[in-house]
Amino acid sequence: MKTSSPVTEAELHALVDGQLAEGRAREVDAYLAAHPHEAHRVAAWRAQNRELHGLFDGVADEPIPAGLLRAARPAARWTTWRLVASVALVCAGGVLGWGLRGELAASRHQSPTAARGEAGNANGFAQRAAVAHAVFVPDQRRAVEIDGLHEDQLVTWLSKRMGSPMHPPRLQALGYTLEGGRLLPGGAGPVAQFMYRDSVGTRLTLYVSNEVRAATTAARSEGNAVPGETAFRFVREGDVNVFYWIDGSFGYALSSFSSRAELGRVSTEVYRQIGNGR
Question: CA–CA separation, 69 vs 137, rounded Å?
Fold first, then answer.
């Protein structure tokens, strides 16, 4: 069957997500039958969708933690409804899989500066870290996927999935012990989240993304200047305080319901250990 028009990257993702019109889907299926390389890519995306469904479908069916349903303060930037919607967006990553890759592909048609800006949007990165913190911190049963008692397994697993050594900072001197960690879908790839707890039960999370590395690679391949290291930045998302920064090819965001001063104290130590470990 000959396609009525060229098959686009967006249509391949729409096919994977079941969003393509029936007639066009038949044309794209015929196109894939004649292009094994493209068919292999589509099969890989479908496999990723199934994997993400396995990770998040159970969470999506659980009751929303009471902590997320508390009334938002008037000065807060998020209403309760917007926070719940953000939780839904995180779970929707399992449905969409890596469909966001299509957005990155589309960015190739923009200016290099705009493409790098979308791929490495630091503010969006901090917002995703805040949402992930708000979603998992209230959970008493599944706050982490691998607990701190099996840190070696956690490090091995996250390092393999992130494509780089992932060693959680040691924060015992500041009163925090490692509770564990998990893998999350980010804006354009996997993200590692480490969770810590102090003696009174206060939790903080460290969100680590290599999306900055992807943006750096894209910039270099296009012969453009590569963005350098950034200083600490602070943002408040609802009740969540976030300190975030870029160090080399990774982005880091430390989130907590604690005060800005306390979070800044911990962020300084995390940055020191990461810098010494490079």
Answer: 14
